[in-house]
Structure formats: structure tokens, C-alpha cells
Amino acid sequence: MSRYLSLRGASRARACVATAVGLAALGVVFGTGPTSPAYADDEARIICRWTDPRLDEVSGIALSGVHRRIAWVHNDSGGGPYLYALDTTTCVVRARIRISNIGARDIEGMAAGLDARGRHVLWVGDVGDNRDSWPSVRIHAVAEPLVLRDQSLPAATYRFTYRDGPFNAETVLALPARPRLWVVTKQLAQGGIYPLPDPLSARGVSKLVRAGATQGLVTDGAMSPTGTRYVLRDYLWAYVFDGRPPGRQVARITLPTQPQGEAITWAADGRGLLTAGERDNALWYVPLPGELQPADAGSASSSASSPVATNSAESPTGPSSVLVVLLTGAAAVILVGLATRWLRR
């Protein structure tokens, strides 16, 4: 402060004007003016963060078919046979389900859909096999409760293996309106897509036949709310496909930087994706590019009727965000320097 207080006359005026121009430049570049949005409509952003210590390694997520603004999540191996109802606007856990009649060897994926009787169920994939050694793996169907409260529920179990050998997998896909399921394996260079029997049978161990190939290191995926598209993710990108698996890839979307990002599902309005990571306590919203927006989608990326209304203005921290910060910071310095030189003249 003493430096500014010691200035006299024109020098003081120049300093004040230069400071004002510099601050204005920073405000324009960084968008901190009162009418500037905290983020662009096409930027990934954090919806909320959870503080519940039970969510210590979120590895799978599925949007509820019963409860608005609820997504079910589970932890990675060692997390027990538990599912958590996560509020997608506050990240508060509204309920916990304990699956009463199973062990949790390595639960790695889940999906929401209907069973053969038309009931809303959560398909829970105990399909992890890091050593590619299990003689069979399992998918459990748990009836989605109508009331959100802590409770224990039984599951129907379907056992299967792969005809071409045991594999590790972390992805379960399910049509939203009928019991049609797929498992996507997680191999280094290329994964496989394996449809489950239609109809499902709880007798014996089914042998799944590979129906197609897909990206390597797939950590999760989900069918769209309409069942006409699906998404798969790895640690860096989300891949969107038209049709049922194996479909036609139509987009690759950069995901925000997440320590070991392993969970993805669709937002209820179909305009974006929800993602989470094992080493991160944040729920992210990733908007879809314009050409993939539903036909009735407006210009806004979220609305009051959406079950993922964004009540957070946290800035993204993905690779593109870092580049933007560096470029905008450099631009601000240049603008301040030019303003100062002009005033000195």
C-alpha cells in the first residue's frame, strides 16, 4: 500500500487507471463479472461431493428406475454386498441395501432395468476377475425398493462363464424396459461384448459367446434411458454407440481428470453423463455434444425438471480446463502489460 500512497498527481492517476484496466482484463478473461456464468454449457462440472465415509471406493453407478434424482452406487472389491442410494443433487446417501443372500467376491458393475415379471431391479455384476481364473462369475437381480430406507433384500443369481476363457470384467449393460443384458470384459488392448442368455436362466452355469469387440480397459458403461444408445468408459474417455451392443461408435468424449475413474451412467434427461471415481469423492456431470442431444433438448444443459439439476459452480479440473487456465492467465498478463505501456506514453 505504501507504494501507491507515495505517488503524486499524474503518476497516481496512471497507476489507478492501469490497475482498473488490469482488473477489468482479468474479469473479462476469467469470466468473473456479475453477468458471466461460472462455467460454459458444454463443460464438465462437479454437481456435488460426498462426505459419507462408506463411499470410499465407488466403482459402479446406475440411475434409479423408481426414485427421481437417485443413483445407486457400489464400492469396489472388499466393499461388501451393499448398494447405496445417492442423491444426485446433494451427494447425500439416502439409503443402503444389504444383499442378504450373496457374498461379494468382486462386485464391479451394475445397471438398472426390469426383470421378466416387469419389476424394477438392480443388476449387480460380481464379475471382477483380476487373475482371469474364476470358473464362473455372477449377476444378481435385486428388486429396487419403493421406499428409501436401510434394509436387507435377497437377490436372484445367474451364473455364467465365457466360452473362450475366464476374463476380468467391470461393465454390465441392461436394457431399461426388459431383461436383456450384456457384459463387457476389461482387457488391455481390446475388450469383448458378451450377451447373456435371453431369457435368463438361474439353473447351472451359462457359457457366453462373444458378440463383438470394443475398446480396451473398459471400466463401466450404461444403456441410455431410451435403450437406443449405450456408453462405455475407460480412464480417459467415454465412447458413445448407437444401437444395442455391439453398436456403432458415434462419439468419443474427453472425461474430467479423475483418480481411477470407474463409474458412468446417463443423466435422466439423456443430455449428459454422470461419472465418478474410486479415488475421488465427486459426482461429475459431462454434457453430450450437440449432435447427440435428444431431439427435444433445449439450449440449456440442465433444468429444474432434470434429476441432476446442477447446484454447484465448481470449475472442471480436466486436461482441457488446465489448458484454459494457462491460456487465460497468459492473456491477462499480456493485457495488463499493454495497458500499462499505453498509460506510460
List the main descriptive attributes of the protein structure presented here.
Neuraminidase, 2 domains, 5-stranded mixed β-sheet, 3 helices, globular
What is the total number of structural domains?
2
| Sheet of most strands | 5 strands, mixed
CATH topology of the largest domain, by name, is Neuraminidase
Our count of helices gives 3
Indicate the overall shape: globular
Beta-strand percent range: 35-45%
**Distance separating the two termini:** 24 Å
The ordered string of helix (H) and strand (E) elements is HHEEEEEEEEEEEEEEEEEEEEEEH
The CATH architecture of the largest domain can be given as 6 Propeller
Class by helix and strand content?
alpha+beta
CATH class categorisation of the largest domain:
Mainly Beta
Oligomer: single chain
* Uncertain residue ranges: 1-39, 297-345
Mean pLDDT across the residues is: 81
Would you count the extended β strands for me? 22
Helix content percent band: 10-25%
Question: What would you report as the Rg, rounded to the nearest angstrom?
Answer: 24 Å
Arrangement of strands in the largest sheet: 2-3-4-5-9
